[in-house]
Amino acid sequence: MIADLDNRRHSFHVAIENWQHDFNIGAVVRNANAFLAAEVHIIGLRRWNRRGAMVTDRYQHIRHHPTVDDFLAWAYPEDLPVIGIDNLPGARRIETVTLPRRCVLLLGQEGPGLSEAARRACAELLSIAQYGSTRSINAGVASGIAMHSWIRAHAGPPPD
């Protein structure tokens, strides 16, 4: 099954910071599998709650990077722009841009969002429009919205 998926994977990656044992990583992995991301990158702690992945971690490539600098040492030579997804001041709305065909969508940890080191590494910062009273949406949900934005721009219809 992995070989079949590898033949069809898309050219975007997704990364998430994990400094406080984020419970949303399983949802990010599951979304990455659903949208056929090339790879998931976990920056920070190696441990994460696999329950939310619903076994999709068996079929999704996952790479660990101990620090943001380690992650960048991988991403820059691959010529992959890092696109931060966070509702920071000055971030452009994801709804108004076309994501690059080859890129890494970088999400911050639930609560604090992107670390300062991660923000500095981003070629661009994008936010997701929100209209209610909450400060932010769940990181797993944000990952799905960001990946779907890439899919809308670059992927055809899914196979039957």
UniProtKB/TrEMBL annotation:
Entry-linked SUPFAM superfamilies: alpha/beta knot (SSF75217)
GO molecular-function terms, A-Z: RNA binding; RNA methyltransferase activity
Domain of life: Bacteria
Keywords: Methyltransferase, Transferase
GO biological process: methylation; RNA processing
Entries under InterPro entries matching the protein: Alpha/beta_knot_MTases (IPR029028), rRNA_Methyltransferase (IPR051259), SpoU_MeTrfase (IPR001537), tRNA_m1G_MTases_N (IPR029026)
Domain tRNA/rRNA methyltransferase SpoU type: 12-148
Cross-referenced PANTHER family: RRNA METHYLTRANSFERASE 3, RRNA METHYLTRANSFERASE 3, MITOCHONDRIAL
Protein name as it appears in the record: RNA methyltransferase
Organism of provenance: Mangrovihabitans endophyticus
